Each structure stands twice: as C-alpha cells, then as structure tokens.
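Hey team,

Sharing the Myb/SANT-like domain-containing protein run so nobody has to redo it. Sequence (119 residues) first:
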Amino acid sequence: MDGCSQETENSSNKKNSYDQWTEQETDELLKLLVDATLEHRKDKSGAFSKKTVETRILPKLNRICQCNKTYENFKEKYRWFKNRLGQYQEMFKCSSGFVWNPDTKMIDGTDEMWDNYLE
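Structure output:
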C-alpha cells in the first residue's frame, strides 16, 4: 500500500456526501488522467466519457489507493481540477512575465509581478 488513504487535502467537515480526497488520491487521479489523455481516451468533444472513467480510470485509482471513489466523486474532483487550471491560465494570460520553473516545479516571477498580481 502506498499510503493513498491517509491525510485529507481538506480537513473541514462538510454536511453533504462529498468524499474527501487525500493528496495521494488526487495525485494518482491526475496521473491517470494524463495517461488516459496520452492514450487518446477522450471523446471527440475532448471530455472523458462516463464509461471511460468507470472502466479505465476509477478501477485503477481504487485499486492503487485502496479507496472506493465513484463517478460522482470523480466529477467533483474533475471540476476542481478544471477550476484550478482556469486560475493558472488567467494568471499567465494577465501577467505575461510569469514562467514555469522546471527545477522547482513552481510558477516563478519577480516580487513586483507577484505584488501586482495579488493586488
């Protein structure tokens, strides 16, 4: 077991049925999505079909992380990924000086750029 069912990414209590995702589950899902994309598993509209998710992605995730994520869990996390991507795209679009640093695997910019962006 690689520890996929340990600490949660967001420890706040919620009254709905949202199943918390651990950092490891999130990382593994992202890897599986990248793999599925590289294997051309998206449909013509560029989305993952429910069948692909339920037959190719979730079984691997659940086996690797020893969890029981459902399609509904997947949809919520996928929305989270898309929202996060949109935030990064907006930052790069509006702030032309930001760059990706492959060594630190983080977004870099001058202090002045960060100050302007955060205003």
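Confidence is low (pLDDT under 50) at residues 5-17.

Ping me if you want the raw files.
A.
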